[in-house]
Description:
elongated; single chain; Serine Threonine Protein Phosphatase 5, Tetratricopeptide repeat; mainly alpha
Amino acid sequence: MSIVKFESMLKTNAVYFFDLVEFEEIIIHYLDAGKHALAKKAVKLGLQQHPASVDLKLLQVEVYVIEDELDKASVLLKIIERLEPTNDEVFIQKGSISSKKGNHKQAIEFFKKALAYTDDKVDVWSLLGMEYLYLEDYNNARLTFIKCVAADFEDYAALYNVVYCFDMEKKHKQAIVYLDNYVNVNPYCEVAWHQLGRQYFILENYTEALKAFDYAVLIDESFIGGYLEKAKTLEALKRYKEAIDNYLITLELDDATAFVYVRVGECYQKLENFNKAISFYKKATHEDPLLDKAWALLADTYYQDDNYQKAAYFIAKALKIDEENTSYWKRYSEINLKLNFLDQALIGFEKCLALEDDDLLVYIGIIDVLSFLGDYNTAMKIIFKAQKKYHDSAEVQYRLAGLFCILNKEKYGLNHLVTALKIDYDYNIVLKELYPIVFESKKVQEILVDFKNNNF
Length: 456
């Protein structure tokens, strides 16, 4: 009734009297509803009718803080503090102002003072915990939010924050102990079971994780997050059909998402049901055409199914969205190698190097393509770069042996051949594949035979 009466007054420009409690209710209502302009009007009228009210003055401070008029808020707080030096709300607002200014340490001190004067410690603990989070002081934040949960076991926001702190501290075993104790007291809390499952999942204890997620969805059969995590856990256990079933439940409970379509597709791909995988990846691209991962997975599936033309089409789609993803460029090169488009394969591998991906596979790809193209001098320049990082790699040493011999530096080539054989004798087949003339030469054959007969 107070709200209706107040809004009627505003429409008619009449002036009605409201007692102090009514004004407080009106202002708090508008603040909670985000109607700050109406809250401001109510504060102004309230102070006209009750100019000595400290509570209204504190609400005026709150309005100032919302409007970012922090200096005005601070001045008014000094006046209120002189009137009521033990008013907890004064220190809460001082803390809020300090927090907005980025002075989180000072905010903590003000909130600690507020705790000394307040009967409602939970709200202050919550504010205090957030300040510790801003400072990345996860230990104190966690201890503070634990107090919130102890006071109200259904304060799920505080519970999430406790677990978040454990996560940031990488104290997953301690988190499990805490959550175990929590569910012993509050066993029908799906949020706690869900968080407990997450901790087990992080520690790769998938059996216990699955039990926790089972409890979460048993308590709340519409808990989408529980089904998603359960499905991910089943994937980790390689129970792909069951994982698919749980992903599909989320599609029944809520609108379709590209994320779920992708995960279902990946399960089918692992089951080598490529048609189903492709179907769900295409659904993902329809749902979110800018999801590069879905296009890339389509390329992977077609590549796996030896359909290189379609793989090339879809990897190009992924690269249009994210042209700095080196895994996509690697796949691009691999596809073009299968299609015998060596120049395009070379472009992909070189792009990886330009993006600072110096994985051995990238170096080997460039060297092999250049070797196929007969550009041995450029291949030698690249392999020298690879050797600096992968000195003990058989792949590098065999290629060094082949390139040196091809370039008529047989002595160096044979030395590298011996080094390569010591690392991995059986891998000498790569010499036969890449440099058959070198492999079939008399000296190389003699070294291979001698090495096999343990004469080296």
